Amino acid sequence: MIMETRGDLRKLVTGIDIGGTNTVIGFADAGGNCLYKTSLGTADYEDPAVFVKDVAGIIVDFFQKNDDTYLIGIGIGAPNGNFYNGSIEFAPNLKWKGVVPLVDLFKKYFNVPVTLTNDANAAAIGEMVYGNAKGMKHFIEFTLGTGVGSGIVVDGKMVYGHDGCAGELGHAIIFPGGRTCGCGRQGCLEAYCSAKGIVTTFLELLENEGRKPDGKITPYAISELASKGDHAAIKTFEFTGEVLGLAISNSVTYTSPEAIFIFGGIANAGELLLKPIRDSFEKNLLGVYKNKIKIMPSGIKENDAAILGAASLIWQNY
Amino acid sequence: MIMETRGDLRKLVTGIDIGGTNTVIGFADAGGNCLYKTSLGTADYEDPAVFVKDVAGIIVDFFQKNDDTYLIGIGIGAPNGNFYNGSIEFAPNLKWKGVVPLVDLFKKYFNVPVTLTNDANAAAIGEMVYGNAKGMKHFIEFTLGTGVGSGIVVDGKMVYGHDGCAGELGHAIIFPGGRTCGCGRQGCLEAYCSAKGIVTTFLELLENEGRKPDGKITPYAISELASKGDHAAIKTFEFTGEVLGLAISNSVTYTSPEAIFIFGGIANAGELLLKPIRDSFEKNLLGVYKNKIKIMPSGIKENDAAILGAASLIWQNY
Questions:
Q1: When comparing pLDDT for A25 and B318, which is higher?
Q2: How far apart (Å, rounded) are the C-alpha atoms in residues A107 and A115?
Q3: How many CA atoms lie within 13 Å of B298's alpha carbon, on the beta-carbon side?
Q4: Sheet of B87-89, strands arranged across
Q5: Following CA atoms B299, B301, B303, B308 in sequence, which dihedral angle do they give, to the nearest 10 degrees?
Q6: Closest residue to A286, CB basis, from B171, B176, B286
Q7: pLDDT per residue over A266-280, tens digit each?
Q8: Predicted pLDDT at A3
């Protein structure tokens, strides 16, 4: 076997994180070290086959230059990535329409395992392999960013569901008849706790206080204002945490996990967000679950999180 | 092995359904036939050890009288039954307080597998073994009765969670700040869709119409009134179905199941309940799940459902 003759070489996984604007390609070892990282513009490619050809070129180039390493697999995190069939399916934020058989496209260039799933599932698997969920069998990862995603692990395995679309907790309805969500429905968790949802909350609170927004409003800008004592900014994180705590307490009734992890840029607000989450969580939690469940930030290295999540799709089975 | 020398005998599982008032004991074969059924009063026993001794007597008696059969295992469905440790834990509707190690108590009498879980999980496993979920890998069973329970199956396995308490969807909060639930929290699914919740809805609607209740109000009585065209009764089932449809659409975002089953006496209302459930479900469903998921009544024989559910805990692994 080729692998055995390569015993002295360093095994690496190529992790690919496909976003609407950019795609990041990195090379990660079993210990969660990302050796090299580069990117190209996803939106520059009309044809996914050309995109894959160029990414393949980057991968081949890396392994030619680093001949003390070898490729054991390719893990891909992508919006609407379906693990079962290795395709990106009807991704609203990508130029590629319909069903894109991404794994098959990569298989033309590489004779190694290639695995695809959505970003949130990749984050959850990354948490098991590299992060704070090492050794855990039951947990849920919430990813907070442009959208609200989630990955659910039961008995140590990612829950993909009947069709590969499990774990869309950002679109569980928290407030029936509430805020309109990007999906067109009303009252989804995402409508309150995505970057846009948080900004909406802040703007509503500003208006209630008769104030006008000042400069570009982002969750980061709001967290900066909150740390300076801005009333509306503090209330924004309190409300966001309250809604998330409620959503998390509901999620516990499904799979009774050991822990909940909060992943993504917005989670960087730290205790500003985690404290109201925990308060609301404990308030809304069914008695039987009390004092059993940890709520923690993700333990994956922030800068390389998406690459490590994608790479962990391969490392988890290695 | 004893089993091989017993090749000509008929294999039976003892299914035990423990309720707050009565316990039913039955003997079921692999085909879902319940040969004999008897019951005793759960509430008559202060000491669970005496209860188990008497149930064991019934079992021994049956197999002595039916010497062409033999016992291959005992499956038990019980409120707050924990699969992992075989105990009933802090069941509010039983006299036995604290943790009751029921499986261990039975093991003193029988050298066969003894398995315990809660009633809703037993119903879901029964659906896989005997009912409409044969061959399905991903589904959710909602049980409607005194409470609202649920059993979640992922990849063909019951989800028990970290501590054995998974699947409490009756206590997912549907309307934050809504009706007070028996659990002390507000807005749980159970507060709307249990027998008591349905009666509450009917009484509220009667009051809105300036009417007084007539006789004993039960979900069955309300369904009879609805079939005669009573406005408040029809509205009651419409509202109950609307809430259930919303809850089911949320549940789909977790495990993306192939089907949802509705089990229990209240489900006997048939299309009166199923039609508003389906309407609300489709209305509230995230686009990616549309036209993929069946909502069906349970396929387990009504009269023996609880016994067959309990017995299936053994048959599923046989």
A1: A25
A2: 10
A3: 34
A4: B81-82, B87-89, B99-100
A5: -100
A6: B171
A7: 888 889 999 999 999
A8: 44
Helical H segments across chain B, by residue range: 2-5, 48-65, 102-107, 119-129, 190-193, 195-208, 219-227, 231-255, 271-284, 305-315
| Tens-digit pLDDT profile for residues A78-92 | 989 999 999 999 888
Task: Tell me what pLDDT residue A217 has.
Answer: 96
Can you name the CATH fold of A135-298?
A: Nucleotidyltransferase; domain 5 (3.30.420)
Which of B253, B258, B288 would best serve as a mutation to test chain A binding (most A beta carbons within 10 A)? B253
- Scan for tokens 């509202």, then name that residue: B239
H or E element at residue B39: strand B34-41
Flag whether pLDDT at B160 surpasses 90.
yes
DSSP 8-state assignment for residue B173: B
Average pLDDT on B109-135 reads: 96
Q: Residues A76-87, buried b or exposed e (16+ Cβ, 10 A)?
A: bbbbbbbbebbb
Find, among B318, B305, B266, the residue nearest to B123 by Cα: B305
> CA A87 to CA A270: how far, in whole Å?
35
Is the pLDDT confidence value at B297 over 90?
yes
CATH 3.30.420.40 fits A2-126+304-315, yes or no: yes
pLDDT of residue B127 exceeding 90, the answer is yes
Strand-pair partners of B37: B26
A168/B286 CB distance under 8 A: yes
**Rounded-to-5 percentages of helix, strand, coil across chain B:** 40, 25, 35
Assess: ipTM above 0.90.
Answer: yes
**From the centroid of its chain, how far is CA A73?**
20
The answer, for B179 touching chain A at a CB cutoff of 8 Å, is no
Domain ranges across chain B: 2-126+304-315, 136-298
Whole-number Å distance between alpha carbons of A63 and A109: 13
Q: At B9, is the pLDDT very low, low, confident or very high (cuts 50, 70, 90)?
A: confident
What fold does the segment set B136-298 form as a domain? Nucleotidyltransferase; domain 5 (3.30.420)
SS3 (DSSP) at B76:
strand
Q: Where are the alpha helices (DSSP H) in chain A?
A: 2-5, 48-65, 102-107, 119-129, 190-193, 195-208, 219-227, 231-255, 271-284, 305-315
Asked if A253 and B289 come within 8 Å (Cβ–Cβ), the reply is no
HSE (side-chain half, CA atoms, 13 Å) at B289: 31
A173 touches chain B (CB under 8 A): yes
Residues of A in contact with B160 (CB under 8 A): 256
CB proximity B200 to A under 8 Å: no
Q: Which pLDDT tens digit goes with each residue over A229-269?
A: 999 999 999 999 999 999 999 999 999 999 999 998 888 88
